[in-house]
């Protein structure tokens, strides 16, 4: 057996105990350590607790410490910090409740058996006290994470739900988390608590790094609160508490930001709510939510499919379809050419079928859809019927139609070059009517060119519609660079910063991989016009923007400055074509190379 180092200043030191070579003796010593630690007032207790957190993060499925009483120990330490402020302020004990809650959350994130052990150990009451804000937002963050894991499992959810205030606290935290972090930490650089700064940066960064990490943690605080609420949303008895209009209206704006893009956040919770009839009834009554879901469904966001699910469920529900069909149908029509989206196969066909059923349902209902919406759906159905008829059409006839469409497209290009934008848009529409439905590359170009016309005509909604159709037709999906850029500009016209930002970033990504000389990045440099738009939208979509406007700017000592200060040339960004010179404005409306050789040119865009 290894001898314990004689120079260790802490009797019964956890790290010394773990060096014991005999497994039985080590387990007995660890068991004793967990039992005695909460009653001790020795210095240096934060070191083994932080070590336990590292172990829990690295080996969350290891049952050794679970069997030896780690949950009981962590719960007792949290209670000690809540009840004994003198002890909490001594040495580095202020860190202990944070690490203790983190240990609980890490050991319960994968194993239901561990979650059951944690509940029996009594971890929920002290976690709820942290969730209430008995300490600070930093402890709230890890408490809501741990409670979210416990609420995930069927066997432990009732124990969380028995604390009736948990759901209301989570809703309040999701709604106010960004403002809390901004006003309690981000805004006043010189007033930041030292242990907050240490936890955020592990002592490896200054004020700028602290601010960046604070934004990330604020997003996690909000998203983990939404995850906890999501567990309740699967239960019909809690939907009335969740579906308050003021809360539902905020959900689409809770998107995690660029710092937390892996969380479905608000749209994920809306999808859960829309799975139930009761939830759909609440969502259908808030027009702002429907509009936001339509924007997300059109976007290139990773959670696009969740918004599409919501829209389809809403129009398929007889109780809500008449309220939403006129708002939702244009978006679904734009998306009807999607073939595959993630795990969804033939999604476009599903959309067409649902819209067709809506028209049929309308004939048997007193709540009729508008004549304009019906005309748009009928037009979509005729296009799909045209696609079926083309399968039996001789190849020669298809080539003739394609050639005729090309001639009309060239006429549109000529009109565009001469400045007749309306005439060019009309010609692109005529070419679309002639172009075979199966000639997807050609139709991508026509829709994208017409989107450019609508941009110049100051018709952003029409531009978004055409750009979206081009992106849905393109292979891979949502990766046609010029359409991404045109839609980014159209979103900017409408003040939709997040959507514009995502498209602009994807545009830059596609340019970096494109072999098209008009798009490829010169000397690996992001074009100035794209950089300016991204900077503008990052300021507008900044996670703390609303909080900053409400509480004022950032206050700090020294020469630190607000990274999101307004730039002088904010409104003077150009379009893709304008920035590349006079001639590119004309070339931009003509992806003619995609029409050569009968449209069989190898696709230049690869999936990122």
TrEMBL record:
Domain ARM repeat N-terminal plant: residue ranges: 7-244
Amino acid composition bias (Acidic residues), ranges on this chain: 567-583
Domain of life from the UniProt record: Eukaryota
Pfam families, per database record: ARM_7
Comp. bias regions, Basic and acidic residues: 584-608
Chain residue ranges for the region called Disordered: 560-608
PANTHER family: ARM-REPEAT/TETRATRICOPEPTIDE REPEAT (TPR)-LIKE PROTEIN, ARM-REPEAT_TETRATRICOPEPTIDE REPEAT (TPR)-LIKE PROTEIN
Name recorded for this polypeptide: ARM repeat N-terminal plant domain-containing protein
Organism annotation: Hordeum vulgare subsp. vulgare
Gene from which the chain derives: LOC123395419
């Amino acid at each position: 057996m290894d001898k314990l180092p004689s120079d260790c200043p802490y009797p019964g030191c956890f790290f010394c105990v773990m060096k014991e070579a005999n497994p039985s003796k080590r387990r007995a010593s660890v068991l004793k350590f967990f039992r005695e630690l909460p009653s001790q007032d020795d210095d240096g207790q934060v070191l083994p607790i932080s070590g336990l957190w590292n172990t829990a993060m690295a080996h969350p499925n290891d049952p050794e410490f679970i069997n030896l009483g780690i949950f009981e120990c962590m719960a007792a330490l949290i209670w000690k910090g809540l009840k004994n402020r003198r002890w909490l302020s001594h040495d580095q004990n202020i860190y202990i409740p944070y690490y203790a809650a983190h240990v609980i959350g890490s050991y319960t994130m994968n194993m239901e058996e561990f979650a059951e052990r944690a509940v029996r150990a009594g971890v929920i009451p002290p976690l709820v006290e942290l969730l209430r804000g008995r300490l600070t937002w930093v402890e709230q963050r890890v408490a809501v994470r741990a409670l979210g894991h416990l609420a995930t499992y069927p066997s432990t959810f009732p124990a969380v739900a028995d604390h009736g205030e948990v759901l209301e606290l989570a809703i309040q935290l999701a709604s106010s988390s960004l403002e809390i972090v901004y006003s309690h930490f981000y805004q006043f650089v010189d007033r930041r608590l030292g242990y907050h700064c240490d936890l955020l940066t592990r002592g490896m960064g200054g004020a700028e790094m602290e601010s960046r990490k604070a934004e990330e943690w604020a997003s996690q605080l909000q998203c983990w609160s939404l995850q906890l609420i999501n567990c309740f949303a699967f239960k019909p008895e809690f939907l009335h508490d969740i579906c308050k209009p003021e809360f539902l209206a905020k959900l689409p704006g809770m998107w995690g930001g660029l710092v937390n893009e892996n969380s479905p956040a608000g749209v994920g919770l809306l999808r859960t709510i829309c799975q139930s009839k009761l939830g759909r009834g609440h969502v259908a009554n808030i027009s702002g939510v429907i509009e936001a879901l339509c924007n997300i469904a059109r976007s290139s966001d990773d959670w696009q499919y969740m918004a599409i699910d919501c829209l389809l469920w809403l129009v398929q529900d007889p109780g809500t379809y008449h309220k939403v069909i006129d708002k939702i149908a244009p978006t679904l029509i734009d998306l009807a050419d999607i073939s595959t989206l993630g795990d969804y196969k033939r999604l476009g066909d599903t959309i067409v079928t649902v819209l067709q059923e809506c028209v049929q349902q309308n004939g048997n209902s007193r709540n009729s859809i508008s004549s304009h919406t019906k005309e748009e759906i009928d037009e979509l159905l005729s296009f799909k019927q045209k696609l079926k008829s083309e399968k039996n059409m001789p190849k020669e006839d298809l080539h003739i139609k394609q050639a005729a469409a090309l001639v009309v497209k060239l006429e549109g290009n000529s009109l565009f070059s001469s400045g007749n934008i309306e005439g060019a848009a009309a010609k692109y529409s005529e070419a679309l009517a002639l172009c075979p439905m199966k000639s997807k590359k050609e139709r991508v170009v026509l829709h994208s060119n017409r989107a450019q016309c609508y941009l110049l005509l100051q018709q952003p909604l029409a531009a978004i519609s055409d750009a979206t159709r081009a992106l849905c037709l393109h292979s891979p999906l949502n990766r046609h660079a010029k359409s991404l850029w045109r839609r980014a500009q159209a979103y900017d016209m409408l003040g939709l910063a997040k959507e514009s930002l995502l498209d602009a970033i994807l545009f830059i990504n596609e340019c970096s991989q494109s072999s098209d000389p008009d798009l490829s990045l010169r000397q690996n440099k992001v074009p100035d016009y794209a950089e300016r738009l991204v900077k503008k939208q990052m300021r507008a979509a900044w996670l703390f923007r609303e909080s900053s406007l409400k509480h004022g700017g950032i206050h700090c000592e020294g020469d630190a400055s607000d990274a999101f200060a307004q730039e002088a040339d904010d409104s003077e960004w150009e379009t893709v074509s304008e920035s590349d010179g006079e001639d590119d404005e004309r070339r931009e409306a003509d992806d003619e190379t995609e029409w050569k050789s009968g449209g069989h040119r190898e696709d230049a865009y690869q999936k990122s």
